[in-house]
From TrEMBL:
Name of the featured protein: TolC family protein
Keyword terms of this UniProt record: Signal
Gene3D superfamilies given in the database record: Outer membrane efflux proteins (OEP)
Entry coiled-coil feature ranges: none
Domain of life of the organism encoding this protein: Bacteria
Signal sequence annotation: 1-34
Family of the protein in this entry: Belongs to the outer membrane factor (OMF) (TC 1.B.17) family.
Example GO molecular function: efflux transmembrane transporter activity
InterPro entries the UniProt entry points to: MdtP/NodT-like, OMP_efflux
Length: 419
């Protein structure tokens, strides 16, 4: 029979230890389908298999084909005419038939072909800039997705560390309850904190898997999920570029140039062409042959291409407005990215040098005081929660810094650097 002065252990302590031990075994890091991937590899894979880039490259090839077609002259026309046969009287047969074989050629006047070539070449230049924009956008998406996946992997590690600390605190609380120094409610509260930490691990793992799938989707995905190996945040661009040299502004300028060339092309189409033909006519009745010459030109009475000229001028006006908007947008994006980078770096420096060391020290003091009976379990949990918040904020600040660098790199992208 146990001594009446001996305090019995909390009835849930044994089951709690067994349950948490089993949970701890399930929280082993790593994934059977994880594939370590560096940022450079992620960028290379996305560039090699991105449907967006494939479509932009096809658009360039199509524009080149249209430019080639624009340089061709009109084809000559071969004509055959047979007259004065299968009629009545003396024309009932083919004895008096007349046949004419001719070759005609349409001559483009008013500079149509050079204007057509200039417009087509302008479209090629714009298509190549759209490809550069698509490539720059894709690189920013990969950098953002890679940084997000790496941050989520850090959050998984942090959640597991929090579980380890909560499990250790639950063990200490159980021992103090068994020793009679704490009421049984303290052990139950510590166990609840450990189970809450398990929930955070599960949520962090789910978010990490989602971020991995989002990253893999940029190059088509696969069974193996990419596992970022490091933050790999490059240095922020140090040089300040002229906003007019930004990639988006260069594209807007190319679209303006295209619209101007299209206006000139449509104006040339209002000028008539001349078709000249020459041939030989045979008179079957006398077996004589004579030359035939002809020329024709449309009369610009109704259709002078005026509707297309109006439309082309309106498109030019719109292109110029979009260029102005692109210039203003380039300035704003650059300034926003620079401000976001400064804020993230200042926040990260504060957390690393001040907040985290103080939070770690507060947890150490609270745990030692709790073991010695000077502090309560709630004091320790408050200190742990403060440390968890600081460490989570550090991961978020690192992510925001990486995203700000990616945004600044994209905002200062030029045509040469995007190749």
């Amino acid at each position: 029979m146990p001594s009446p002065n001996r305090r019995l252990p909390h009835p849930a302590a044994g089951a709690a230890a067994i349950t948490l031990a089993a949970i701890l075994a399930m929280l082993a890091p790593g994934s059977a389908f994880a594939e370590p991937v560096t940022l450079a590899e992620a960028l290379s894979r996305a560039a090699a298999s991105s449907p967006t880039l494939a479509a932009a490259e096809a658009d360039v090839a199509a524009a080149v084909g249209r430019a080639q077609q624009a340089g061709f002259r009109p084809n000559p026309e071969l004509g055959l005419e047979i007259e004065n046969f299968a009629g009545t009287g003396g024309f009932s047969g083919v004895d008096d038939a007349e046949s004419t074989l001719s070759v005609g050629q349409r001559f483009e006047l008013g500079g149509k072909r050079p204007a057509r070539e200039r417009a087509a070449q302008a479209e090629v230049d714009a298509a190549r800039l759209r490809l550069a924009v698509a490539r720059a956008d894709l690189e920013q998406q990969v950098r953002d997705a890679y940084a997000e996946a790496y941050a989520d992997s850090r959050r998984v590690e942090l959640a597991r560390d929090q579980f380890m600390r909560a499990d250790n605190l639950q063990t200490i609380a159980t021992e103090l309850v068994d020793a009679g120094r704490e009421p049984p409610l303290r052990a139950l509260r510590a166990r609840t904190a450990a189970l809450e930490a398990v929930g955070r691990v599960r949520a962090a793992e789910a978010e990490y898997a989602e971020a991995q799938r989002a990253l893999a989707a940029l190059w088509g995905g696969g069974e193996e999920l990419p596992e970022p190996t490091a933050a790999e945040t490059p240095a922020a661009p140090s040089s300040v570029i002229d906003p007019a040299s930004a990639l988006d502004v260069r594209l807007a300028e190319a679209e303006v140039a295209t619209s101007v060339a299209v206006v000139e092309r449509e104006r040339t189409l209002s000028r008539p062409d001349v078709t000249v033909s020459v041939g030989a006519r045979q008179f079957r009745g006398t077996d004589d042959t004579a030359l035939v010459f002809g020329a024709s030109m449309p009369i610009g009475l109704f259709d002078r291409n005026q509707g297309n000229i109006v439309a082309a001028n309106a498109e030019r006006t719109g292109a110029e407005a979009r260029r102005n908007a692109a210039l203003a947008g380039a300035i704003r994006r650059t300034r926003d990215a620079q401000a976001a980078l400064r804020t993230a770096e200042a926040q990260l420096a504060f957390l690393e040098t001040q907040a985290e060391p103080e939070a770690i020290e507060a947890v150490r003091i609270a745990r030692e005081g709790f073991s010695a009976g000077r502090f309560t379990l709630l004091d320790v949990l408050d200190a742990e929660e403060a440390l968890n918040t600081v460490q989570a904020d550090m991961i978020t600040a690192e992510l925001e810094r990486a995203q700000a660098v990616a945004a600044l790199t994209r905002a200062t992208e030029t045509e040469g650097s995007a190749q």
